[in-house]
Known about the structure:
The protein is mostly helical.
Amino acid sequence: xxxxxxxxxxxxxxxxxxxxxxxxxxxxxxxxxxxxxxxxxxxxxxxxxxxxxxxxxxxxxxxxxxxxxxxxxxxxxxxxxxxxxxxxxxxxxxxxxxxxxxxxxxxxxxxxxxxxxxxxxxxxxxxxxxxxxxxxxxxxxxxxxxxxxxxxxxxxxxxxxxxxxxxxxxxxxxxxxxx
Length: 179
């Protein structure tokens, strides 16, 4: 049996599924950890990654994605990952904007670039500096984090995605409530 996710602000899977714009379903009243376990049991790994990343607090979603990139990408882009790691150590506005800048310089959709976008979307305005503030959608960080781990795991097949999902589940089980 799974440990409950005490760090998630969501009490029902339907809350997370709604953010993902998934149709209502029989699993909506389940606890998020139970829905995640069902997705995995049904071999819906990409959906499980998306669900987990959106269910996690934003900081933890970026941390999970960064760890996945480091574990699965043979030679991750050093500049991008140094920027993401700097934000994880100091999640300040300056570091968040640094993540945006590095993501904008990268031209291909790599796991590292998606991880940098996840960090940028994790808080504060996403509008250009000096413009009226505009917040990212609540699910943006999770969507970028999930895309980063899915793309990082792709060359490793199901085993790679299972490994990163296992790591994410352990993280979710030990998170403190962020609300």
